[in-house]
Amino acid sequence: MTLKSFVQVQPDSHFPIQNLPYGVFRPESGSTARPGVAIGDYVLDLSEIARDGLFDGPALKGSDCFLQPNLNKFLAMGRPAWKEARATLQKLLAATEPTLRDNATLRQKALVPMEKVEMLLPAVIGDYTDFFASMHHAKNCGLIFRGPQNPINPNWFHLPIAYHGRASSIVISGTDIIRPRGQGHPTANSGPYFGPSLKLDFELEMAAIVGPGNELGRPVDVNEAADHIFGLVLMNDWSARDIQAWEYVPLGPFLGKSFGTTISPWIVTLDALEQFACDAAKQDPAPLPYLTEKISKNYDISLEVEIKPAGHEASCVVTRSNFKHLYWTVTQQLAHHTISGCNLRPGDLLGTGTISGPEPDSYGCLLELTWNGQKPLTLNGTARKFLEDGDEVIFTGFCKVTHYNMFS
Ligand SMILES: O=C(O)/C=C/C(=O)CC(=O)CC(=O)O
Ligand SMILES: [Ca+2]
Ligand SMILES: [Mg+2]
């Protein structure tokens, strides 16, 4: 039988009882930040549930992990605690369970209408790394930035390439991004351009939130890497293409990507995503043993980007992609990150890289969608090569149950 909650959840809601993503919120402005999970149009306040002693399993009983203003302590506790919390919350929110359903005082305190809350960054993010794991994106960027000779560097097929991003400028969805100023790529015989970026772009990504870290000098085995990943967020790696194209040789992206990176407020756990797992892409050449997974999986997560042009009421879908298009899995990314001995810490953020699919209408950024401005998009009758001031960029990710077992 399908698990149902006593909390009313609309059929098209992203937050049924099977999901229960984690975030950090203030119930009203000025109140303290605390962890919560999304259920229908409500946020369940985990500090209230903890204060009432309802986390009563061996890992969480008496723990103050939900009395913190961020999720780092809970992230550090690892999968046994995450599984226990999920089981406790699914039981507590179930239609058949009276504990919270029939306790009006606790319900009043613990279930906060989502429209009233202020969402905050879910974790203190010490370090942020951005990978480059979609072959379609790598190929298209290569064609645009480097030309048709070998658009994908040979190393790309042997290791998940990444650069170290800037953690200080990671912001929560809804935060305004200020157009960066900097040096842009020279055109024709001129010197470099200086001024506000003329090629401001989004990048459709997701990112892994690291749970337990690893000690310096002790790499994580690729087959255990999933135990170090709590879940996934949506991520927009805002990019200034003119700054990037000029500065990135030979050390990689710097100021063209450091002026803002947006993440979604909700972390969808790997446990919730498990039922949407699918086979990962076939890798040819076979990766080295330290990157070879016994079970190599991706997740079937539909992704969409809409742009609401400045001054317009309606938004337009500009791309539809899917997480499963990634060539390198998030577990390979994490294992590769630590193979040198580099230590990860709870709350670290590992961006997947832009998730472009094979078709032109599944490309994950305007650089590809407009082919560096050569083929503008038309949005509600307005042309766009890159983003303009006041444009709003909306990312959506969702998983669909495509069939039910008739006997369940
Ligand atoms: O091919 C390049 O020169 C760079 C491409 C990127 O935009 C790098 C990046 O942020 C990685 C990604 O999002 O896939
Ligand atoms: Ca990126
Ligand atoms: Mg960025």
From TrEMBL:
Residues 18-122 form the Fumarylacetoacetase N-terminal domain. Belongs to the FAH family. Its cofactor is Mg(2+); Ca(2+). The keyword Calcium applies. Keywords: Calcium, Hydrolase, Magnesium, Metal-binding, Phenylalanine catabolism, Tyrosine catabolism. Converts fumarylacetoacetate to acetoacetate and fumarate. Involved in tyrosine catabolic pathway. Catalyzes the final step in the tyrosine degradation pathway. It catalyses: 4-fumarylacetoacetate + H2O = acetoacetate + fumarate + H(+). Pfam families: FAA_hydrolase, FAA_hydrolase_N. Pathway: Amino-acid degradation; L-phenylalanine degradation; acetoacetate and fumarate from L-phenylalanine: step 6/6. Residues 130-393 form the Fumarylacetoacetase-like C-terminal domain. One of its GO terms (biological process) is L-phenylalanine catabolic process. The lineage of its organism: Eukaryota, Viridiplantae, Streptophyta, Embryophyta, Tracheophyta. This is Fumarylacetoacetase. PANTHER family: FUMARYLACETOACETASE. One of its GO terms (molecular function) is fumarylacetoacetase activity. Mg(2+) binds at residues 237, 257, 261. Its EC number is 3.7.1.2. Substrate binds at residues 132, 146, 244, 248, 354. It comes from the Eukaryota. The active site is at residue 137. Ca(2+) binds at residues 130, 203, 205, 237.
